[in-house]
What we know:
The chain is an alpha/beta fold and 336 residues long. 33% of the residues lie in helices and 21% in strands. The chain is built from 12 helices and 12 strands.
Amino acid sequence: MPETVDTVRPPLMEVRGIRKTFVSRGLFGPAKRTVAAEDVSFRIRRGESIALVGESGSGKSTLARLVLRLERPDSGAIRLDGEDMLVREPRRISLAYRGRVQMVFQDPFSSLNSVHTVEHHLVRPLLRHRRVAPGDAHARAGELLRTVGLEPPEEFLRRHPYELSGGQRQRVAIARALAVEPDLLVADEPTSMLDVSIRMGVLNLLAALKRERRLAILLITHDLASARYLADRLLVLYRGRVVEDGPAGTVVESPAHPYTRALIDSIAGAGRSEPLARRAPDAGTTAADRGCPFASRCPEVRDRCLAIDPAPRLVEGRRVRCHLYPETAAEQEREA
Ligand SMILES: Nc1ncnc2c1ncn2[C@@H]1O[C@H](COP(=O)(O)OP(=O)(O)OP(=O)(O)O)[C@@H](O)[C@H]1O
Ligand code: SF4
Ligand SMILES: [Mg+2]
């Protein structure tokens, strides 16, 4: 475990057995049910960064929205510092929760309002969350800009979002999230709309915040290289299930699940074809009721895979949902 991670206190956030389904009704034809999250569990400690990776439609943003309480799961638990967040669902997300869990979204062009200056974007959350006295808000906004590397702050405070580059806007979005001094930052594809040349700057900034402020980060990305760089742990999602979960280096360097291997191979061969991570799931592979959801694409499929959905099992420091590895005693019991 890296030394930035707080292993003394209990986990900051614990997500346990989350399930989320969507039902979409078209004008014609039967209603379509999508399982966007199935039996998802993970924990985040202070100072720890977890990356969620997986192809388009695998359920990454749904999980982010569940953690942010913008969606409610069908079942499961979400605990913040041990307190169950789903027991009593408020009509609106409480100010206290927003003060602890903040987000940065993919599109720095739509996440800021062009009518307002950078200063307005920073002062508003500072005052709303009562982080400073009104007379100190201007100075604190300047400090936040320094933290995210936008200097001289006086110049950037006066600007409007349309007077900034994409990378600068994303830094303002991060500064705005930091204004409330959150414990957890949920970043959904924060660099995917940025030029490759400025992506690294934003990732470095997130890494510094994690190190220096013990900020916990849930990073959602298509980009395994970014995930490997920033994250301590990697969760690989397929059809809403976590198919592999382990230390980022181990998962990237010696993937255990056939889907993780396919994901990594597709990125290595990305020059030749569209990376798997950006592709929508293949047509005709709608989730089977029984068996492993990856069976129809898996080069290692066997009879057992078509009949039984594998439960996670421990494989060299990782949890892997695949019949290639020996079952745990608990699973054997379940199937008996
Ligand atoms: N509000 C909704 N109503 C119906 N289906 C939804 C809704 N939100 C998400 N889904 C479905 O749930 C699945 C997971 O979607 P999600 O947006 O979480 O995927 P993702 O991994 O973030 O994909 P991407 O990489 O393209 O952003 C998809 O099949 C999607 O169509
Ligand atoms: S359980 Fe079977 S089909 Fe599923 S990933 Fe493992 S080997 Fe492939
Ligand atoms: Mg998404």
